[in-house]
Amino acid sequence: MTETGLTDGDFTQSAEPYALFARWLNDATAAEPNDPNALALATVDPDGLPNVRMVLLKGFDEGGFVFYTNYESTKGREILASMKAAMCFHWKSLRRQVRVRGLVEKVTAAEADAYFVTRARGSRIGAWASAQSRPLESRFALEKAVAEYTARYAIGEIPRPAHWSGFRLKPVSIEFWHDRPFRLHDRVKFDVEGDSWKKTRLYP
User: Quick check: helix, strand or coil at residue 84?
Assistant: First the structure.
């Protein structure tokens, strides 16, 4: 048993990655003070230069890992151009990391609508007011746009903008990393092989 409570059996006995990820995310939810569902999302621009930024995981199952964004933002446009991405979860307090690489698909309109209505009203207004990633002349211009959409949707539900939706990253590989003394870390990688997963231990 290690200092974070992880046994070697968690790696060697896991035949697929999703149950292991669920346990680690549950541990992070109990231990991390802020945003245990935060992840670094990597994309590439049309010239092949990588971009990375933090986003929040909003759901996952055997179909993939779901997050939401403005499709007209930099990350939205880069994903739509390649339909590929990578993720990295790092839970510092647990000394654990998970890396995910794969292909991306759009979530359905029904999925996006269902999530959008759960957001705070101010966040829904913000989805309309922010031309995400594009030049902003001043903070006042943003506040003015927020005021305009707040007045427009003062009563009733706020519809989801057509340009605001979600993506689902469908993994081709998932790697789990756990800190061990003297930099002799545990690493296990799961790779998709047909309808199953191939599991490989890696040198640290």
Answer: strand
Tell me how far apart the alpha carbons of residues 160 and 123 are, in angstroms, rounded to a whole number. Answer: 11
Range(s) of the chain covered by CATH 2.30.110.10: 8-117+163-202
Could you tell me if 41 and 9 are in contact, meaning their C-beta atoms sit under 8 angstroms apart? Answer: no
- Which CATH entry fits the domain spanning 8-117+163-202: 2.30.110.10, 3.40.720.10, 3.40.1160.10, 3.50.50.60? 2.30.110.10
CA distance readout (Å), 186 to 12, 96, 180, 198? 11, 10, 7, 17
Residue pLDDT, tens place only, 48-98 = 999 999 999 999 999 999 999 999 999 999 999 999 999 999 999 999 999
Closest CA to 99 of 76, 65, 132, 135: 65
Q: What is the pTM of this model?
A: 0.91
Please tell me which residue in 121, 139, 183, 187 is annotated as part of the active site: 183
Q: Which helix (H) or strand (E) holds 190?
A: strand 186-193
For residue 58, give the nearest of 141, 118, 2 by alpha carbon: 118
Is 124 part of the annotated catalytic residue set?
no
